Amino acid sequence: MPTPITLALPAWLDEAAPPGRVFADAHAQVGLAIALARRNVEERSGGPFGAAIFDGDGRLVAAGVNRVLPEACSIAHAEMMAFMAAQARLRRARLNEDGARYVLATSAQPCCQCYGASFWAGIDELRIGARASDVMELSEFDEGPLPADWPGELERRGIAVVRDVLREEAREVFRLYARAGGATY
Description:
The protein has 185 residues and is an alpha/beta fold. The chain has eight helices and five strands; from the N terminus they run ααββααβαβααβα. The protein is 41% helix and 15% strand.
């Protein structure tokens, strides 16, 4: 009998990020990702990262937060959780295979794992709050190696990159995380 693999998002997430709600622009979309990261720290339900997938009309498809420690799973990053939730909701592995446009909004620049998954998940744009340098300056997280021109690599694959959206607000979540004691949950 195969070993079942199950990952769970926190119970508060659907109330905080109801699928179908419209977030009109990059500030609103990254703002949601940052708010989810903050709430994840406040609820002590995971690390200080949030992510959300939106369709081309700004409609929220799915959201995720970091669940690495609560789920004892190194791939349970916010972006990965958002990808999996969106793929489950849309019932397809590549989100944009139907020709529609999808955006990934993140509270912080994707690590090397989430960067790689972005190629295959089928997103058309990546909108980012904090930079990897912010994450590593303000926390114990190591974001791993990326190509020197990682934004260019994404853009060559048809994924637009918008950085520094609400960057200071995103940095504040890492300060909050540090004040809360860091990786204690």
